[in-house]
């Protein structure tokens, strides 16, 4: 009995040792995200890169007695390449956040080139990694990364993800406030993209659909779509969501790692190079996917939608098409 347990434990540890790299690790998201990753026992090597302070953040986290070693890198001494070398999972929250009055698309001019340059190094140093994009505007930065990885011959559609988990967390929380339930028990599917009207929560697929008045439903959809604005406004010029985003990023990275480790039935919504609406010229779309040892194992159909949700999806697709083209065109013009 004892030896059986010991063998099982040993094999599960052997299958669960991963190098995870965070690019932008000293930022508002990067620091709490790195903390949460330090607490994930599947992470055995945590590499933190930023233009500033990454070594300090790494030294700080390295005192926590979990089974990972932590390394900090800045741009000097080829730090980016070293941070990325043979990583299994790379999270990218590098870039500038919004201030009140800005849309996520207003961040494009600054963040597009940051993400493009980091993606080039991912292609060279961690070509097999699962790449998780947090930097906004996600609807465009994920296509940018695809174009860079493609140009280097290492693009794998199963391993490039736009992190939309914060939309799921908000949907679960805000729905629970309306129907008075435990938010931890809710699991709303959110599809489309990650900005305003491209965020489409599928409330009709929850058990509460008929219990919510039209007025409350409209307010709920608006709050989920524009939840980011609430935080930007409250932080009053000091940035956007960081702590809830760290939780969202850590949850999504944890699910990707669970998939890589061969755990069953790991499902998350995420923005990927998706077959769902390719025939309509929409190359990326967020939907639920099952995660596995190779990354995306299965892309889920959207399922049955209400008429209102059909309309929201149609509107989302129009904006997504433009956001995706903007990212693709940027890399064509600025390789
Ligand atoms: N996907 C999502 O749901 C969410 C995305 N975001 C986005 O995440 C990004 C980061 O937000 P915060 O952490 O609040 O910003 P922040 O300004 O606090 O941190 C960004 C970090 O990136 C670093 N950085 C900048 N250029 C870099 C480069 N070339 N290489 C490495 N590091 C670099 C900065 O030094 C800084 O430490 C923003 O674009 C924001 O809009 C924010 C919340 C949610
Ligand atoms: O609103 C922002 O700019 C940051 C973000 O993506 C979010 O909080 O969903």
From TrEMBL:
State its Enzyme Commission number(s).
1.1.1.37
Query: What keywords tag this UniProt record?
Result: NAD, Oxidoreductase, Tricarboxylic acid cycle
Per the record, what is one GO cellular component? mitochondrion
Where substrate binds, per the record, is at: 98, 104, 136, 170
Output the superkingdom of the source species: Eukaryota
Domain Lactate/malate dehydrogenase N-terminal: start-end pairs:
19-162
Family annotation (CDD domains):
MDH_glyoxysomal_mitochondrial (cd01337)
| Family label | Belongs to the LDH/MDH superfamily. MDH type 1 family.
**Protein name as annotated:** Malate dehydrogenase
